[in-house]
Design brief:
Length: 263
């Protein structure tokens, strides 16, 4: 109750709200009945550590450290191990993906305070016979995550809902193509067909098709990865901070005009 009161007071005093995606903007407007024209979208950006690496020896090192198969394409997921991330749907999609591959699920499943579903995923893996082809890493550092991105053939993010999807911009900044749900902030971050593919999250077959396409077509993966790095230039923190500074300038000008008008 106290949190709701504080939120309402903050909204009443705010001249502008800032959020990370058009979908988050819509939700804020709908839930709090706040005018959409007073909500500005300024996206997040990847940490500068996330970049393409030339030295491929680190990819072998990260595989050894986490006991991953040495010569198998890695499919990477990064995020929470929670039901709304639709990892069950991802596993169902991978049932039909032929050839060699190994799924790496990066996320702190041991200390996930937001409704984790790790035990359910482990049970499902046993039921569908994929336990040996999936690794849960638990928490990893940014340095380790950098090497996971660079060692992977693609990032998959099959979420039912996402406000932004920071792993997408991190992966694309590393030159990694993505296969993601066409929802929320994911849909506005991925350039469909150019930096990766957007799929309705309820449809495991198209997810499987795009994952298989990227697994068997290395030239396509490389082309999408190059486009992804270029796409991420507008998501750098310098670009993001410049947009925020412009917003502050606009608000200061509005305040000055209001003050003069009041005099």
């Amino acid at each position: 109750m106290a949190r709701r009161i504080k939120t309402r007071l903050a909204l009443r005093r705010a001249d502008r709200l800032v959020t990370v995606s058009q979908d988050a903007r819509r939700q804020l407007s709908d839930i709090f009945r706040y005018p959409a024209e007073s909500i500005t979208v300024i996206s997040e950006g990847p940490d500068p550590i996330f970049r393409p690496l030339i030295d491929e020896s680190e990819a072998a090192n990260i595989r050894n450290r986490f006991q991953l198969p040495p010569d198998v394409p890695l499919i990477l997921y990064v995020g929470g191990i929670s039901p709304h991330k639709n990892l069950q749907g991802l596993l169902r999609a991978l049932e039909s993906v032929p050839g060699s591959w190994h799924l790496v699920l990066v996320g702190d499943y041991q200390n996930d305070s937001f409704w984790g579903c790790y035990s359910e995923l482990v049970a499902l893996l046993g039921d569908i016979g994929l336990s040996a082809r999936v690794t849960f890493t638990g928490f990893v550092t940014d340095e380790e995550l950098l090497h996971f991105y660079n060692a992977s053939a693609m990032l998959v993010l099959p979420s039912m809902s996402e406000g932004f999807g920071l792993p997408l911009v991190e992966a694309m900044a590393c030159g990694v193509p993505v296969v993601a749900s066409r929802v929320g902030g994911l849909a506005s971050t991925v350039s469909d067909g150019r930096t990766g593919y957007l799929i309705p999250w309820r449809c495991p077959e198209p997810f499987a098709e795009k994952i298989e396409l990227l697994l068997r077509n290395e030239p396509l993966r490389r082309a999408l990865g190059r486009a992804a790095v270029e796409h991420m230039r507008s998501y750098s923190w310098s670009a993001v901070s410049a947009r925020l500074c412009r917003l502050y300038g606009e608000l200061l000008e509005e305040a000055a005009v209001t003050s003069v008008a009041g005099d």
